[in-house]
Amino acid sequence: MRFKTDLKNIRTFSKLTAALNSLEKIAWMRLDDDTVRLTVIPATGSQVWASLSVDLIFENYQLQSNEANNTINLELPLQPLQRALKSASGSHHANLRLTKRDGAPMLSMTIHTTTKDTSSGPGGGLPSRSGGATRHNDDAWAADDSEIFHPESLELQMKRDREKVITQDIPVRVLHPETVETIMQPRVREADVHIQMPPLLQLKAISDRFTKLALTAASSTSSATADKTPKLELQANMHGSLRLRLHTDALDITSTWNDLTHPDLDPNELTMPIEEHPSTLFKQAGPEKWATVRVDGRDWSRVLSVGRLEGRVIGCFADDHALILYVYVPHHVDGGIGSDVVTYYVSSFSP
Amino acid sequence: MVVFNFTLSEDGVAVLHDALACMFKFSDDVCLEARKDKLTLTTLNISKSAYVCYSFAANRFFSRYSFEGTPQQRDKFSCQLYIKSLLTIFRARQSGGASESRDGTSSIERCDVAIDDGDGKKSRLVARVSFRNGITASHSLPYEVKAPVHAKFNKEEASNHWTISSKTLRQLMDHFGPGIELLDINTNEDNRVVNFTCFTEKVQKRSGNDGEGNHHIVLMAITATDRYIVLKKPLHTNIAVEMDEFDDVEVEDKLHIIISVKDFRAILQHAQITSGELVTTYSNPGRPMKLSYGADGILCEFILMTIGEKDAMSQKHKAPRSSAAKAAAAPAQLDAASYRANSGTNSTNPQPIASNTAPKAKPSQHQSQDQSRHPGFEIRPQNPPPGTSRSTRSDSLFVGQYDDDQQWEPVNPEEEEEEEDNARLEWNTNSEPVRVVWS
């Protein structure tokens, strides 16, 4: 079993890790020749299936396993991964490989980086350095530059430190194929409404506000058995509107977004004629026909944490059943939307 | 009668405050030791594994300095005070922007400090802080006349040494994750690198309120606890720094020296705002390590007890210690006081006081039992001392500095309430909002 790769788009990888980490501490990572899949399934709350093409976050990717289809399944803690990626951000070069330390499997990240010796604060004079060290410095850069071109900053005019090599070892467990074969991506019936979500930062700010309000309302009315899991109601129609509603004994507030777009369905992907698709029926029923889901305020906030990926988000509402969010991971390099999707499965609570 | 007095400029007050804030991470009280030519501040932490000593040169650091002495203490005068009270006095009032505080109303212009003592007088440290707006605040602090305890460091024995930019080292510490306790500094002559390895033998405690029952997510085949333990090990981090980056490096190959990360971080935090270069000297595991740096008129020295190899081993394997191992294990405490001869070579090392030997001998005897249980360093409370966060100019040791995406964190009302509590602490006693100054 062998896995070794260089890292690229560390920022994207890091943001994805952070988004997943807000829902669950441990993830299942499945690697094959083309795809990296990261899955988290919290005991309670929404689950996430992220599927990225290998090229998005890895390069010089090497994978070798005895399993069918050349796959490796790992279980790994997200917080250390996130921490390691943070360490790697701003580095010249970082790679990741599966290895063992003291007999225990590890994902070992090797990071080549430098420090910024900026002078600031009182007494922050630059240390006097021998001419030899500086010269070596230049040599190291010359060698580097012949192969890779890094974006250069003004810091280059100042003294550059030598490269440091940082190794971050993330504990992992290698999983048997049998352990994971029973875990299936949820199947949800055809959505009644599919809609492009408004900017998640807006949605999150308002949702969080509502959640806090609900908690405050619950604690001020002493009679109520303090509802620690405030429910928010999300509604969408096929006429460009999304509503977020908080309804308690004491208050009833709603925020509405209008003029949102509905992506076209690809008839080839459908199992039924498009005229019979639930969304078509919803559209015909007019703007007062809403698909509704009720979500837990805290869980919803964790879900919306995916907004940091800055991707396009499509919400698929199955009325009174579930909400599925498809988050398309943007390719900063080629600009196109690839097959890199993070899928959130949010179940609806009964009213 | 005035035993000694001195005057500090605005910058002097800030420097003294930073030094005390760093010291406060080690101990609650500080020993002041005044002589004709210098003022020395020292402290020893409660587990006697770390010793801090700052020396301020009388003619360089102070605007004015005069030492009279007492009939009993003609050459030097020493007393002990609470660091917290001193921090309150020397805290710069950082209201408003930087420009405003400079020429504005409430910045400190100067500070006069005097120790008043003598027969029939109350023993008090009197500090008069003069602000630019014309207000003068006088503080009177009681103190205890007490001879300081100095840690012994044998320079001859310590053959390993290196010097490096404290900023570089401080930035490298950012790569270490949470939950680590120990730092192993070791060298590899083959690769010409010095390794800084952070590790802990403790299984990381899960923090946060979403922990319970959350850990049995994906997989069922193996019991939750098994997986839990394996995956809860904290990040194991190693940083290799090329020897060429050090000045004056001379270290025994493959020598592993282990210290507390927390102490090291505290030192680097102060070092990087004080000085460019950090000088480190040590001998063998279980023997003290000295870290020092200086600026104009100031010398800062830290003596840390390193963890003995046997200590580390027994910690690692969690084996009950045999009495033989106990005897063999290096003492994890610094040798306190009265080793005058050994520290003599270092002129900056304050001389211990003979009269102090007797009372100090007693605690160190019964400490030797503790030491078998705590071969290393005791874990101190994590609360940052009040005042430190706003005085230290860069706190990124403890704060993620990479991504400003707090806005994406999930809503957590309880946490928010805590934050609000903390925010209230940001108001100082004058009810002025104190801003954290980022550099």
Automatic annotation (TrEMBL), chain A:
Origin superkingdom: Eukaryota
Keywords: Nucleus
Stretch forming the signal peptide: none
UniProt KW Flavoprotein keyword: no
Region (Disordered) location: 113-138
Pfam families according to UniProt: Hus1
Annotated GO CC locations: checkpoint clamp complex; nucleolus; site of double-strand break
GO biological process: double-strand break repair via homologous recombination; meiotic DNA integrity checkpoint signaling; mitotic DNA replication checkpoint signaling; mitotic intra-S DNA damage checkpoint signaling; nucleotide-excision repair; telomere maintenance
Entry's localization field: Nucleus
Membership in a protein family: Belongs to the HUS1 family.
Protein name: Checkpoint protein
Source organism of the structure: Podospora australis
UniProtKB/TrEMBL annotation, chain B:
Top-rank lineage group of the source organism: Eukaryota
Keywords: DNA damage
GO cellular component: checkpoint clamp complex
Composition skew (Acidic residues), residue ranges: 402-421
Disordered: annotated segments: 340-439
UniProt keyword Nucleus present: no
SUPFAM superfamilies: DNA clamp
Biological processes annotated in GO: cellular response to ionizing radiation; DNA repair; DNA replication checkpoint signaling; mitotic intra-S DNA damage checkpoint signaling
Family recorded in the similarity comment: Belongs to the rad9 family.
Functional description taken from the UniProt entry: Acts in DNA repair and mutagenesis. Involved in promoting resistance to ionizing radiation and UV light, as well as regulating cell cycle progression after irradiation.
Name of the featured protein: DNA repair protein rad9
The species this protein was found in: Podospora australis
Organism classification: Eukaryota, Fungi, Dikarya, Ascomycota, Pezizomycotina
